User: Which sequence fits this backbone?
């Protein structure tokens, strides 16, 4: 949470930067002080404190302080520990599981509800209007894009996943306003994906980005008023087999899918019921 706010400092107005500086200097006090005291210490107005909380993706001061209290008071009971070459199976089990739990708990405390709400609204509107919905990702992120496509497919949504840079570029070129693209990147530094996203923006399509906060991809999306779902974790971007990042991205996809399903509600029910009936017919019964 604090790392993401630190990365967003340059994009904030000067008055809100003073609020951010006060927060980063003493997060524990910020979580406990009333708005009047915070405004006085930062030398800003009370509304500026509230605007700062909304600028960094929260519903207001109360929502922001609730999440902040979870970070500074509760902490996270698991810490990220790198796997060593001489680790035995028992140590690997503990480290891999603890790393995953740590990343998920940190995301829970740092996630910006406003950004997530905006992404769910955009996806639901795309589905309602039966416009194109596409998921872009390369390498490990391409697998997450395929998972996202599969989850929306199970909702009866005609979505596609593209993991090849050339196909992404061709697909993005055919987008129109009203279409929606979800771009997924662990590092947010893939030159090919950033170039594809630039085409998406030129075409006027809605863009949702799942990536590291402060990355070039996140900065590009934010500069065009698009939605960024920050997924920050301590895992090295250059690892041969990213694990935590994949689990974190899959969790975010699950949140978006669930949110869209709840938005569409009754409209999805007949399709889902028919799918379940057809799948049930493909299973062996107890008598067989």
Assistant:
């Amino acid at each position: 949470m604090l790392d993401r706010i630190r990365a967003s400092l340059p994009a904030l107005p000067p008055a809100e930067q003073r609020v951010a500086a006060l927060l980063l200097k003493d997060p524990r006090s910020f979580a406990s002080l009333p708005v009047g005291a915070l405004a006085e210490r930062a030398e800003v107005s009370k509304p500026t404190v509230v605007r700062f909380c909304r600028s960094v993706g929260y519903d207001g001061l109360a929502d922001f302080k609730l999440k902040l209290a979870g970070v500074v008071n509760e902490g996270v009971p698991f810490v990220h520990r790198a796997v060593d070459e001489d680790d035995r199976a028992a140590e690997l089990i503990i480290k891999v599981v603890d790393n995953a739990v740590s990343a998920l708990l940190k995301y829970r405390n740092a996630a910006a509800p406003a950004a997530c709400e905006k992404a769910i609204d955009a996806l639901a509107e795309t589905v309602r209007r039966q416009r194109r919905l596409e998921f872009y990702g390369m390498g490990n992120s391409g697998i997450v894009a395929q998972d996202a496509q599969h989850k929306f497919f199970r909702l009866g949504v005609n979505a596609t996943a593209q993991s090849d840079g050339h196909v992404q570029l061709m697909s993005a070129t055919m987008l129109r306003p009203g279409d929606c693209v979800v771009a997924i990147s662990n590092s947010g530094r893939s030159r090919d994906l950033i170039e594809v996203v630039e085409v998406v923006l030129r075409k006027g399509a809605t863009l949702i980005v799942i990536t590291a906060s402060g990355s070039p991809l996140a900065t590009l999306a934010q500069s065009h008023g698009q939605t960024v779902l920050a997924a920050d974790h301590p895992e090295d971007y250059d690892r041969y087999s990213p694990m935590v990042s994949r689990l974190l991205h899959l969790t975010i996809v699950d949140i978006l899918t669930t949110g869209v399903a709840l938005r569409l509600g009754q409209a999805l029910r007949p399709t889902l019921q028919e799918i379940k009936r057809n799948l049930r017919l493909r299973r062996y019964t107890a008598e067989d």
